[in-house]
Amino acid sequence: MIDQLRQTCRKLLEDGTVNVVIGYGHSGGGRNPAGQSTPDGPVHPVFITRPEDVDTLVWNDRCFANLTVYLTRKEIKALGKPAIIVKGCDERALVVLEQESQIDRSAMYVIGMACDGVGDPHALKCAVCDVHRPRTADIVIGETAADAGNPEARYADLDAFLTKTPAERMAYWTEELARCVKCYACRQVCPLCYCERCIVDKNRPVAIDTSATLKGNFAWQIVRAFHLAGRCIGCDECTRACPAGINLRLLNQTLARAAEEHFTYRAGMDPETPPIIGSYSQTDEEDFIL
Amino acid sequence: MSDVISRQQLLELVDAWIAQDKRAIGPVAVGEDLHLFMSMSDSGQLAMEGYIRPQNSIKEFFFPRHEKIYRYHFKGHNIELEDVEPPATEQLIIGARPCDAAALPILDHVFNWDFKDEFYNQRRNATTVITLACATFDDNCFCTSVGLSPAAEQGSDALLLSIGDDGYEVRCLTDKGKALFEDKTQSSEKTGEVIDGPEKKFDPEPIGDFVRNNFENPVWQEIALRCLGCGVCTYSCPTCHCFDIVDEGTASGGARVKNWDSCQFAMFTQHASGHNPRANQIHRQRQRLLHKFGIYPEKFGAILCTGCGNCMRNCPVELGVLNSVEILREAATRNTGEGK
User: What are the residue ranges spanned by the domains of chain A?
Assistant: First the structure.
């Protein structure tokens, strides 16, 4: 699998199809003193511009990052036409980004990786994943035996949470959000938080308290979740990045399920389905207003 | 001979502290792989060992992420200002790591430099810091590279060293430490073991020289390209201390507050004109390393880093001081090789 990945990338760079490969690699701490990649070292995003460097690419169950976040970054765009390595879950972000006119799919090459799941044990999202094999990539590398997941189990955590009383739920979020330091890692890792200037950074006038107090933290996390309503593709990168271990996944799921229940819509699943936030229908129900 | 305290006695000491309405702070298990320094309501929450270190630092108990410095009230056409008294609550921090405590003398310089920050100083005076010497370390630890060690004493009022199931050897380092453990310890033949710590991974001096003399080096792009621009490295750093001052309130009044800020945010240097002198993460990462190894050492004679490795562990894209320094060292070798 890794050989095919490296060969594909080498060829893309050699024949000038792309200028940069956005992938996963080792460096620094992931190398032994002889400079070779160590198999269990940390994995991080790499930007490969020379064919001879493709051997630093890796593919394993620690390839957590959703690399599509880089496609809208100025410094990365400046490197030229990209090839991007995506898992099935990451690929859903490409669909939303294109629907929202943030990327031009014809101006990039998408390398999909068949994925059994990341993390050991597997991340929560992987247990209910139904996109183990990327569906819209230009090439899919590898095979996976992982099944389509159980759609009934998709919102199991949320169902369990909703059996609590409103007071218990409020107490839960109060404890969770009290730990937020507003480092904005959740925003920065999110491929769909691409605003040039986030509302929390607007200071003339201030719209959202910058303070990492309970009030400011609730305001921030509610704004973040609402801006991702019907857009969040459930890659859980925000949850992975949070240094305070806040269960942002649960918050995102609430809105994802609302989109699925009320609009039979799952963000990034089908490029042909109009996005619910970006389309108008006279048949939209009015009894569900956030 | 040494002074020792049993685990049980140590927990009783913490509970006695809490019973006096004082604040006790220690590492608390928040998730499966997550420990954070937090206020404790009883000693049962204290999770001293069995992991590398908490993912935050103790700085927020001296320099909180949010602090009111005064209140203001609009009265007709006038504004009334109201002082906020610096907090006087006594604090006990137990189970700090040497790389947390060592940050305190570093922060002291900043908060007592051209302006004496009474909020910081008041908290510092009212806090006793009990540090636990490290018995283990991981690949992200590099205290020995910045002049510290798993049993470094800087900033601690007392140092605990594990003697296994029997508890801890207690080494009191200041009057505050002595006062806390007075009549609480027993003499023992047992002494805690001090481990060697991580191998020395770099020498900070040439790194300082390099960052001061290579402002426009392409290596900064190499380091910063994957940086996503969040503030997690700075917020979980025991030594990073930047803050913003903002007014928060309503039409009737509010407060002027001091909030943590990060050099990794675009807003940190955004001018009112719209111009941003640090336009991208390349400039911002350069600033962070320059401050740690160049600017701060020049001003205060110490490195703005204790080698805790939190920046490495918390970064969503595996970028921190340690691997940035590795890249800088490679670049420095390249420079020398080319005879620059």
Answer: 2-141, 155-263
